[in-house]
Amino acid sequence: MTASMATSRASGRGSTTGRDGSMAASSARVAAMNGASAPFIALEQVEMMFGTHRVVDQLDLTITRGEFVSLLGPSGSGKTTILMLLAGFLQPTAGSICLGGKRIDHLPPHRRDMGVVFQNYALFPHMSVADNVAFPLRMRRVGREEIEQRVTRALDMVQLQHLRDRRPAMLSGGQQQRIALARALVFEPSVVLMDEPLGALDKQLREQMQLDIRDLHRRLGLTIVFVTHDQGEALTMSDRIAVFNRGRIEQIGSPTEIYDRPASRFVAEFIGETNLMAGKVTTTGPDGSLIRLDSGEDMAASAADWPAAGNEALLSVRPENVTVQPVGTARRTERVNIMQAKVADSVYQGDHLRLHLDCGQRRMIARLDRQVADYAVGTQVDVVFQADNCRVIPT
Amino acid sequence: MKAAKIVFGLLAVTFLMAPLVTILPLAFTSSDLLSYPIRSFSLRWFEELMISDAWRMSIVNSLVIGAGATLLATVLGTLVSLGLRRSFAFSGILKSALLLPMVVPAVILGVGMQITFIQLGLVNTHVGVIIAHTVVALPFVIVSVSGSLAGIDMRVERAAMSLGANPLRVFGHVTLPLMLPGVLSGAVLAFATSLDEVVLTLFVAGPNQRTLARQMFSSIRENISPAIAAAAFVIIVGTVVVAGLVLLFRAAAQRQKPSTVTV
Description:
The complex is a heterodimer of chains A (395) and B (263).
Chain A: H1 28-34, E1 39-50, E2 53-64, E3 68-72, H2 79-87, E4 94-99, E5 102-103, E6 114-117, H3 129-139, H4 144-157, H5 173-185, E7 191-195, H6 203-220, E8 224-228, H7 231-237, E9 240-245, E10 248-253, H8 255-260, H9 265-270, E11 275-283, E12 289-293, E13 298-301, E14 312-317, E15 323-326, E16 336-348, E17 352-359, E18 362-369, E19 380-386, E20 391-394
Parallel strand pairs in A: 3-8, 3-9, 6-7, 7-8
Antiparallel strand pairs in A: 1-2, 1-4, 4-5, 9-10, 11-12, 11-14, 12-13, 14-20, 15-19, 16-17, 16-19, 17-18
Chain B: H1 2-23, H2 44-51, H3 53-83, H4 91-99, H5 106-120, H6 126-150, H7 154-162, H8 167-195, H9 199-204, H10 212-222, H11 227-254
Helix pairs in contact in B: 2-3, 2-11, 3-6, 3-8, 3-10, 6-8, 7-8, 8-11, 10-11
């Protein structure tokens, strides 16, 4: 993370000279944070129809140079279609796509200068590892000696120099993924597109690759568009996450924004786990809002100006923000919500404890530190959660 | 149970091989008659194949016509397979139509071709026979090439595009090398089809286009000399070699051995 503190800003393309590892930290995150830079990739009012089925619906999205943006959503939400549109395998039925200020939506894939990493790696089975990595350079008619140097450097980068003469079929999934990565990066594309690249790997390898890709992104100052349906992966890796639902972007923001301040029920439920309570907004404002639940209790929530008072809304609170105390010990204040509940189930999960709580007709889940005294099933408890951890979201 | 399987297997193989086992040794008889017992062995009938004008010409014809039909069927069949790779309106019907020569009785095809070829002046020409053989060889090429194309992951071609290859280079560097085993085994099957095709040849070929198979067919009626057995031996050896090549190509398609290519 110290890399993000660097103040010097290297451009995505120029910084690739630092592939040897000696270069100063890239500014990816800085660029993402100041947000003032001109958009590098801009999708405007993009629409994609397959027959009568609208897969992408009037979508706007801008990405800054050096940014790592994840497109997150369930299958069929249009995220992969966006990637295919960026790569040029599909043409949008309406709207425009610009890269560095120039329209690219009419360009064929081979003239777009984007490195694509596919879920199944899509290595050339009839070529050696070295020939796979050399392929984009050969297509660009790079000289023989330079190809040799750059392939060697790219294979060093993914630490697979020793496999250069093997065929892809002889490599493990993780090794094939690294080769696909090296092949997509060796020609220093302006954008790297990744379509669920880690989907086929086992958990441990996946986590290692997540860190490796994030490290490459930071070191090389790459602009990466990363498609995934795994929220954990998106939270770990991204500068920004665009949450997709039915061809639209439901919310776009930093991982913290998305997780802590979900803008809709879909986002709240798709990213992590949440407790939702239906009610009606009583007051809104910068100092906090109030919501009257359908069950009659008033609950305080964090600042909100929408939905307006009088509207139906949901109160969302994450299980890790819910605590439990022996019955009668909790004190209700303006910024602390309290509920009476009975422990319905207590599940030991190793590093934490999950309590299923019965609050009238409602069920809540609390995620507790396992050091906390164990609550037996059937015990009456006070459920406590801070107003600042409660979000009012539209139904 | 296991013993029963083995016995049944042996019986089936015997049934299939018996005619070959019967005829092949007679190629090496020194007698004038195509019959057992063989009193002494000689290669005189192979010599006869080489010396006799009729036999020699038929072997040359078979090679020329086979080569022409193979080339034509392989090129056309490969193009058809590439064209039918993505489905479009009526593509299924089109493919069935192209595979029709496999199921239509050869006699019917033969009659139709004879009538057509007379109109076009192709009867009794090498070109005519090559075209006729191409028609029956084409389905084998299409089936073989389509099969190998179906095995190519489209994403591999997409990857090549995104890495900077224009459509022509995607074909040359990725699609063609990956489909090559299918093309080669299709070509081999086409050659084998042409080699033992008799019925169409009867209809469209004249005396100057007599192929080896056709020559054997007629010499059986004229005189039953052991030269037929010798010719059969030649064809069978040729076919076995060809079948061996097909197996080799298929194996090559499966195998992924370390390459010696370096950058």
